[in-house]
Automatic annotation (TrEMBL):
The keyword Flavoprotein applies. Belongs to the oxygen-dependent FAD-linked oxidoreductase family. One of its GO terms (cellular component) is cytoplasm. Keywords: FAD, Flavoprotein, Oxidoreductase. Residues 933-1076 form the Phosphoribosyltransferase domain. PANTHER family: BINDING OXIDOREDUCTASE, PUTATIVE (AFU_ORTHOLOGUE AFUA_1G17690)-RELATED, PHOSPHOMEVALONATE KINASE. This is Phosphoribosyltransferase domain-containing protein. GO terms for molecular function: flavin adenine dinucleotide binding; oxidoreductase activity; phosphomevalonate kinase activity. GO terms for biological process: cholesterol biosynthetic process; isopentenyl diphosphate biosynthetic process, mevalonate pathway. It comes from Aspergillus terreus (strain NIH 2624 / FGSC A1156). SUPFAM superfamilies: FAD-binding/transporter-associated domain-like, PRTase-like. The keyword Membrane does not apply. InterPro entries: FAD-bd_PCMH-like_sf, FAD-bd_PCMH_sub2, FAD-linked_Oxidoreductase, P-loop_NTPase, Pmev_kin_anim, PRTase-like, PRTase_dom, SAM-dependent_MTases_sf.
Length: 1102
């Protein structure tokens, strides 16, 4: 699939001469094709969200904002911002030279029959200049308009795909920067443009990219004629010669466009998009280069960095502590190695082996600190562990305070003068060991040294006959060789294409430390070696020489080591390469490679890597046997071509196929590309949340933005809504309506997203069966045809991996970086809140069950059968909410969101949460205690809590006969509520404190009481209730302070059963819930799963 720029060049080459400029009408016709269908997706998924995110700080800090927009078209993209932002715009000016667009824009600004105008709070009429934006302040207009004097200043100046005719572009940005309000620090110029734009020596304030954007155009002659002229930038006449060019252009579009089975009537072209923002400081590069020398001739190694057109490359000079050739390296007491910024792996190994020691580094001598700090996987990993495991100290510059920080065990002579030890240095050291690039600017790293080994290396290649043979040989490599090796040995495998076929290459590394003696494994113990290798290929190497031993450096494709190639890699961790689904993906990846040089490297793990606890370092991905490095390679001369883009897309596609079958992702390769977000969610295992909090504390402004992306640690609690129901009930439709409701919520600035949890299953099913993934995701009829087989596939997967539903749930949640409200469809779990909420204890989890008639469902499914849908209308659990989706249109769904979902973000709930005290190490060390009863000790606390209990109750208080409460926590909150709703109390106390007749049951102690009590005998008590307090058949609401383990509520429910209260007449509402303790699961396990449970607040911990 060609991109728009390639198509433009090709179309212009096909033309015999440059035609006439496009008329305003022709331009409009072409523009319409770019903002429909997939073109509108670019606006919906990238431009509008990024613009909202970019403008939010500025709009939040000012009472009113002035905006200048260049080339808005028929409608401004600003009209799609949330209403709360649009109301801040008090002054709006635009330049739109296209008369057709300007006329439509004028009508759109002044009258909006659908409701309020797009900018409802303007102080004066908007200004619309029907002339091009100029570098001069005085711009000539037409006869009717006269000249245009531009001497006003603005808070925001926006170019949204409107720089195509403005050259030189950097000069126009500089002119716009001169027009920014000087008093507003956040004032900015925002540019959206096709990828590949360069701005000279202007320094960007913010950037974002959308590399997967596509433009779709109908595959018919009329549409292609308009599209081709718009892309080429000029029109054709009705001459015979131009008619021939038109035909040629159509064929060019059809040859270069991508076809999709899901939309067979359209052609698609790659259209990567980029956002770049500038501030008044963007012209201040000379101030930086006056302090730090600029390097004009240096060749940036990373091809991605080169293509980003850096404004400057600088080389700091003050950090170095020595000026000799080995600057930045020191050996301390033969047990520590100190490496400073600028050192490479080869430098460290070369100097350390002189003293007989080494550091377990990666496999390439040219790699720097980025790899050590994010893992460091090499041939000593099985013997000594990862590079980051050997880190004992670091010196870093804080990007928050500019202080030099000395963290961990750093030798005194290597601590810079004036360096400080931060209070949280152990947390920062933990983060540095696996995610160090995210916490500060690292000046030096102190490693624990190990005995330098001698290596025995041999390799061999096995030609593979076909796909089946490839799978058998991979399984044999793992089972017969790799799995049987001792920790001092490792075996790497390579899958690659050469000489017309697939090959499996194997390199075996045997490491021997001084005193061990060289005792190589015999060929008899290496069953695969007999196929293509022998003892004669055995080589003895030291730590420097072994850098060249990897097959991709020395042997594969003639050796990649000295060739002028560029590469792109992503690495995933695999437990078992013998699994058929895994081997099938690996073999198919080589078969579908877009470049002959692409390969897969399976780097052997296990051993010492697994001996480190998952939470001992930030590197939380342990327990894997292979690091699968998906490597795309192409000639450096193809860096800016379709070949490079196709290879990168191939790497991401293979990574996406492997992701559901992997046990983690290597963070060292990941960056700000949005395609990395889904991979980054699995980069740190269970350590992700802790790491995100440390990142927020150490780098609150995200200065280190090009590191592995981490979710933003938001102060606001995430709301996760599980949208469930039978097939055809309208789950996806309702979820999308509710996303809009949250996004448009006035003054809330919420980020909402709807995702399907079944996408991972569909992806795996497509891999296993060859089904069309794109159609499974977007074509309802096609999906219905595969539904029963999809269900069987998922059930088979769960039989093999019982925790697969939990893995899918966590993947979806972790991928929702920066999202406040996550709506998940496609759930198959019974009682999902009870079974899943403990996995995300810091978030509030709700289930909204969509209910509708079978007739409506059948129509929506276009006649599809029920398959595995249960015909029973009775659920075995109580969903949080039920929505009757029995009307056309979205009004009912909107009202539902306003009445039942948006209140969870109310200010009063936030005030209540702030009244909860937090006490560390109480009632015993290691527990952070949430003092719920502290609410009663705050001014107006009890009244606020009772008011919220009353208003958030999902039932009807008029139908409630009794409120039951148990001492002590329930006695604090229930009486105030009972007084408000005029419902009598049923008191539950410890046995012996109520007069007879009473009924009692046994109660296990809560987790807090059990932690505070030394005697095991006292961990069970009995509670009682008067046997005559609650009449039979009464409707009862249980009010308590906390739901944690569920022990107290379980005892209360059993007690109410004993006095004759039916389970379906009982509801529970608590002030605070702690999902980490599985309280809902306990109640469901004991038969109370259908009891409705509500909680005002949700907390992690105790």
């Amino acid at each position: 699939m060609a991109n728009i720029e390639t198509l433009k060049r090709t179309l212009r080459q096909k033309a015999t001469a440059i035609g006439t400029p496009l008329s305003d009408e022709q331009y409009c016709a072409g523009f319409e094709l770019f903002v429909q269908g997939s073109g509108w997706v670019i606006y919906q998924d990238f431009i509008i969200p990024q613009l909202s995110k970019l403008l939010m700080p500025l709009f939040s800090s000012q009472a009113h904002v002035s905006v200048l927009e260049i080339g808005p078209g028929p409608k401004s993209v600003l009209g799609h911002l949330p209403g709360s932002l649009r109301r801040k715009i008090k002054r709006y000016t635009a330049f739109e030279p296209n008369i057709v667009f300007a006329t439509a824009m004028d009508e759109w600004l002044c009258s909006n029959p659908e409701g309020e105008p797009p900018f409802p709070c303007l102080d004066r009429c908007p200004k619309l200049h029907r002339v091009p934006f100029s570098l001069k302040g005085h711009m000539e207009g037409n006869a009717a308009d006269g000249p245009h004097e531009i001497d006003e200043k603005y808070d925001v100046i926006l170019f949204c795909h409107s720089m195509y005719g403005l050259n030189p572009k950097a000069k126009f940005i500089e002119r716009a920067l001169e027009m920014l309000v000087e008093q507003a620090e956040e004032a900015m110029v925002a540019v959206f443009h096709r990828d590949g734009l360069a701005f000279g020596r202007l320094v960007c304030h913010r950037t974002a990219s959308f590399p997967t954007a596509e433009i779709g155009v109908p595959n018919n002659d009329d549409a292609l004629d308009k599209f081709a002229s718009f892309v080429a930038g000029f029109g054709l006449q009705d001459t015979e010669q131009d008619e021939a060019t038109k035909i040629d252009w159509r064929e060019t579009c059809r040859d270069l466009g991508r076809r999709s089975e899901a939309q067979p009537s359209h052609l698609f072209f790659s259209a990567p998009d980029r956002m770049v923002a500038f501030t008044r400081h963007s012209t201040a590069l000379p101030e930086l280069t006056a302090e730090v020398p600029a390097v004009e001739t240096v060749q940036v190694k990373n091809w991605e960095a080169r293509l980003c057109h850096p404004a400057s490359v600088v080389r700091p000079t003050e950090i170095r502590q020595s000026k000799n050739e080995e600057a930045g390296l020191a050996l301390v007491r033969t047990s520590l190695v100190v490496a400073e910024a600028g050192c490479k792996a080869g430098d460290i190994v070369r100097k350390s082996i002189e003293a007989g020691v080494t550091v377990p580094l990666g496999a390439r001598p040219s790699t720097g600190a980025g790899l050590w700090l994010q893992g460091g996987i090499g041939h000593l990993a099985r013997l000594y562990g990862l590079t980051c495991d050997a880190i004992v100290g670091v010196v870093a510059v804080s990007v928050k305070t500019s202080q030099v920080l000395c963290i961990g065990d750093v030798p005194n002579e290597h601590c810079p003068i004036g360096a400080v030890r931060p209070e949280n240095q152990m947390d920062l050291l933990w983060a540095a060991r696996g995610a160090g690039t995210n916490i500060g600017i690292i000046i030096s790293v102190t490693f624990r040294a190990f005995a330098a080994p001698t290596y025995l290396v041999r390799d061999w290649v096995v030609p593979l006959r076909d796909d089946q043979d490839a799978q058998l040989q991979l399984a044999s490599f793992d089972e017969s060789l790799a799995c049987k090796l001792p920790a001092n040995c490792s075996a790497d495998a390579y899958l690659y294409w050469e000489d017309g076929g697939t090959h499996l290459g194997v390199t075996l590394f045997e490491c021997f430390t001084p005193g061990d003696g060289l005792k190589p494994l015999s060929s008899l113990s290496l069953p695969m070696a007999a196929v293509g290798g022998s003892d004669q290929s055995l080589k003895t190497m030291d730590g420097v020489e072994v850098f060249d031993a990897d097959m991709y450096v020395s042997r594969m494709h003639g050796g990649h080591g000295g060739s002028k190639t560029s590469s792109f890699k992503r690495c995933l961790f695999l437990k078992d390469i013998r699994e058929p689904n895994v081997t099938e993906i690996l073999v198919r990846a080589i078969r579908t490679r877009p470049s002959a040089l692409c390969y897969l490297h399976l780097l052997h793990g296990g051993g010492a890597v697994d001996s480190v606890a998952i939470d001992a370092t930030a590197f939380g991905c342990r327990g894997w046997q292979y690091a699968c490095i998906v490597t795309g390679v192409w000639s450096r001369s193809d860096d800016r071509t379709e070949t490079a883009r196709d290879v990168v897309q191939w790497v991401y596609r293979v990574a996406a196929d492997l992701l559901p079958l992997s046990c983690g992702v290597y963070s060292a390769d990941l960056g700000p590309d949005p395609r990395d977000m889904i991979l980054a969610a699995k980069a740190f295992g269970p350590n992700l949340r802790r790491l995100a909090c440390l990142k927020q504390a150490a780098d609150p402004a995200n200065v280190l933005a090009y590191t592995c992306p981490l979710p933003k640690a938001s102060a606001a609690q995430k709301l996760i809504i599980l949208v469930t129901g039978k097939c055809g009930a309208g789950k996806d439709y309702c979820a999308n309506v509710w996303v809009s409701a949250f996004t448009n919520a006035t003054q809330r600035h919420l980020v909402a997203r709807a995702v399907s949890i079944s996408e991972a299953t569909k992806r795996g099913y497509a891999v296993a069966t060859g089904a069309d993934l794109e159609r499974l995701l977007s074509d309802r009829v096609y999906k219905e045809q595969h539904r029963s087989k999809l269900t069987e596939f998922f059930q088979d997967q769960v039989r093999q991996r019982p925790r697969l539903p939990e893995e899918h749930f966590l993947d979806v949640v972790h991928n929702a970086v920066g999202v406040d409200v996550l709506l998940i469809t496609g759930m198959r779990d019974e009682a999902p809140v009870a079974t899943l909420s403990h996995l995300v204890p810091a978030s509030r989890v709700l289930e909204v069950y969509i209910r509708t008639s079978d007739e409506i469902r059948k129509v929506r499914r276009q006649g599809g059968g029920d398959n595995n849908d249960s015909h029973s209308t009775v659920l075995d659990h109580s969903p949080s909410l039920v929505f009757e989706n029995d009307q056309t249109g979205d009004e009912k769904a909107k009202r539902f969101a306003e009445n039942y979902l948006l209140p969870f973000f109310g200010d009063e709930l936030q005030r209540l949460a702030e009244m909860v005290g937090r006490v560390s190490d109480f009632p015993c060390p290691g527990i952070e205690f949430h003092h719920i009863l502290n609410i009663a000790q705050q001014p107006n606390g009890l009244a606020l809590c009772a008011s919220l209990l009353q208003s958030h109750f999902r039932g009807d208080w008029n139908n409630v006969d009794m409120i039951a409460c148990c001492e002590a926590g329930g006695f604090v909150f229930a009486p105030v509520l009972a007084s408000r709703v005029d419902v009598p109390l049923a008191l539950i106390r410890e046995e012996g404190k109520l007069p007879p007749p009473t009924v009692s049951v046994s109660r296990s102690a809560s987790h807090i009481s059990a932690s505070a009590t030394a005697s095991k005998l006292s961990k069970r008590t009995r509670i009682e209730i008067s046997s005559e307090t609650i009449p039979r058949g009464a409707s009862v609401v249980i009010v308590d302070d906390v739901l944690a383990t569920g022990n107290t509520l379980l005892a209360i429910l059993r007690l109410l059963e004993k006095v004759g209260v039916c389970t379906d007449r009982i509801r529970i509402i608590v002030v605070a819930e702690f999902p980490d303790h599985h309280g809902r699961g306990l109640l469901r396990k004991h038969g109370f799963g259908r009891v409705d449970i509500q909680s005002l607040l949700v907390f992690d911990g105790a």
